[in-house]
């Protein structure tokens, strides 16, 4: 029988099968599965959170954050060196004042020129000239009451002094050489104030303003508060962080921060807020959207892996791929050190 198409028997083929019904031909090879990724996870997307305390020789493990330590300025370079050599491109700094009397009602030490953040910026820039340095901007680590702004007599956030103080801190970080400032306080109006302050100090063209625009109040920040010693001493953050059901509020905050001049925006937490990430990618489509995989999410994946409920590498790659699929282009993640290795392995 001649081997031509005419003689192929189609008789067993069902009449109502559609030519669009078979999808597996599109992903039956490892390369095809990569082709199907609209956005590939790469090391240049990773931002690693760093806790810097005011004890210069500090190197303290944090029980609730596996593999993460708090460092003093004398210890941070040795810790980061192998990570930078492996391709780490960016860090976000959090200052942790531990010394007696370091906290007050105004968060005065947030921008102490001799404090860990400003000293940290200088040391990191000197030792790692190509490392991109982001500073989280907030008062909660530095206030005696542990809230993210300045309080009025009733104990509520006092809007004007809070926004002025947060903007001043951001500008002082930028003056010290931070490439990027990321206000995480969620107090209304701070993006505009920071932008204006940067402009009047000749820093607007040198500084990226990465706004935590959609930051939700919930139960996922506990390990961070252990690491940063920043739990509020009374009350909670529900009057400035968004309620978890507040998709409309998040959309309004995204539009507002876009209009106030944010250069990039953060959605936080990540795994439980993928709809908000998609909203962010649509509303702020001309800006990079950053997912913050927060401390509670990190600790949960570790705990599940320890119980053999999940395989750590597989679940981390899957969750981080999810952020990209939802529209994120950057990821703040405590898994950055592991991902530097895992992404290399998969190449
Ligand atoms: N404003 C402080 C701040 N900046 C980043 C985080 C959380 C990060 C994490 O959980 O990993 C928090 C905690 C909070 O708002 O209570
Ligand atoms: Zn705060
Ligand atoms: Zn913060």
TrEMBL record:
Positions that bind 5-aminolevulinate 2: 295, 334
Role, per record: Catalyzes an early step in the biosynthesis of tetrapyrroles. Binds two molecules of 5-aminolevulinate per subunit, each at a distinct site, and catalyzes their condensation to form porphobilinogen.
Oligomer status and interactors: Homooctamer.
Organism: Tetrapisispora phaffii (strain ATCC 24235 / CBS 4417 / NBRC 1672 / NRRL Y-8282 / UCD 70-5) (Yeast)
Catalytic activity: 2 5-aminolevulinate = porphobilinogen + 2 H2O + H(+)
Name listed for the protein in its UniProt record: Delta-aminolevulinic acid dehydratase
EC nos: 4.2.1.24
Record pathway: Porphyrin-containing compound metabolism; protoporphyrin-IX biosynthesis; coproporphyrinogen-III from 5-aminolevulinate: step 1/4
Cellular component terms (Gene Ontology): cytosol
GO biological process assignments: protoporphyrinogen IX biosynthetic process
Protein family (similarity comment): Belongs to the ALAD family.
GO MF annotations, alphabetized: porphobilinogen synthase activity; zinc ion binding
Entry annotation: catalytic residues: 215, 268
């Amino acid at each position: 029988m001649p081997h031509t198409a005419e003689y192929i028997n189609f008789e067993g083929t069902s009449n109502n099968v559609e030519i669009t019904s078979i999808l597996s031909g599109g992903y039956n090879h490892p390369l095809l599965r990569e082709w199907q990724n609209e956005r590939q996870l790469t090391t240049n997307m990773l931002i690693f959170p760093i806790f810097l305390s005011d004890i210069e020789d500090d190197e303290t493990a944090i029980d609730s954050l596996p593999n993460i330590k708090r460092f003093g300025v004398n210890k941070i370079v040795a810790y980061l060196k192998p990570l930078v050599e492996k391709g780490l491109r960016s860090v976000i700094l959090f200052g942790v004042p531990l010394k007696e009397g370091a906290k007050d009602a105004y968060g005065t030490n947030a921008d102490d020129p001799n404090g860990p953040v400003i000293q940290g910026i200088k040391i990191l820039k000197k030792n790692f000239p190509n490392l991109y340095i982001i500073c989280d901007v907030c008062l909660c680590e530095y206030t005696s009451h542990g809230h993210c702004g300045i309080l009025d007599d009733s104990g509520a956030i006092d809007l004007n002094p809070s926004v002025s103080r947060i903007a001043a801190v951001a500008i002082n970080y930028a003056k010290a050489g931070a490439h990027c400032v990321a206000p995480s306080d969620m107090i209304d109006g701070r993006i505009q104030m920071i932008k204006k302050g940067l402009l009047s100090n000749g820093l607007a063209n040198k500084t990226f303003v990465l706004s935590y625009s959609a930051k939700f109040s919930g139960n996922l920040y506990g390990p961070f508060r252990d690491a940063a010693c920043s739990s509020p001493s009374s009350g909670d953050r529900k009057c400035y962080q968004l309620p978890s059901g507040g998709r409309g509020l998040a959309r309004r905050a995204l539009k507002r921060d876009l209009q106030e001049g944010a250069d990039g925006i953060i959605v936080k937490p990540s795994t439980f807020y993928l709809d908000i990430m998609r909203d962010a990618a649509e509303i702020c489509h001309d800006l990079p959207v950053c997912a913050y995989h927060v401390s509670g999410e990190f600790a949960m994946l570790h705990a599940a892996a320890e119980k053999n409920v999940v395989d750590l590498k597989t679940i981390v790659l899957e969750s981080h791929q999810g952020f990209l699929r939802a529209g994120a282009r950057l990821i703040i993640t405590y898994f950055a050190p592991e991902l530097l290795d895992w992404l290399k392995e998969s190449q």
